[in-house]
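cron nightly-structures :: item 1 of 1
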Amino acid sequence: MRTNTRPRPAGFLAAVLAAAALLLVPASPAAAHNSLKATTPAKNAELDTAPTEITLEFLQKLDPAFTTIVLSDAAEQKVPTGEPEVTGAKGTISIDGTLANGTYTVAYRVVSADGHPVQGSYAFTVADPAGAEAPAPTPAESSPEAEPTTPPTEPGSVSPAAAATDDDGDGGGIGAPAVVGGGVLLVLVVAGGLVLLRRRRSTT
């Protein structure tokens, strides 16, 4: 008696559906890397009052030994701040002094508890009606003394450009009379050779 070993269609379909379900299950939150969740001040915020601290909140806890937060102004100069204070998933720096009106950039680099580094940056603007504007960097103006000047050409003198042209011209080459004289001499030599050749033929 033979036994049918072929898989039943219903059982085969159930196995395929189970495998597809496993592939569609999303990764667990524990496997995801850390990322920035919220910021204070917010990204691209325009503030009427200058902030006194910067706070970054992440999805996972931070490693205090590897948390860096830097604040820079519009001239890319570092603004004096305190060291980052880490509490769980939040990192905070205090700002020394009062920020003038202008755009500022917050740059961060942190390492989460799983050892994965995260870095990035964002900007915000201070627009306090009673605040002072940040000094804008101005390019250094060139002094008139530093500009090169061309010395005046005295009567009878030759400018460097004219001297170069003269060197490239006929002044240093063979003159026209010498060329004509050489041509005449060549013609005379050829004519004399022809006369001697005719005389030799006539005597033979």
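cron nightly-structures :: done
The radius of gyration is 45 Å.
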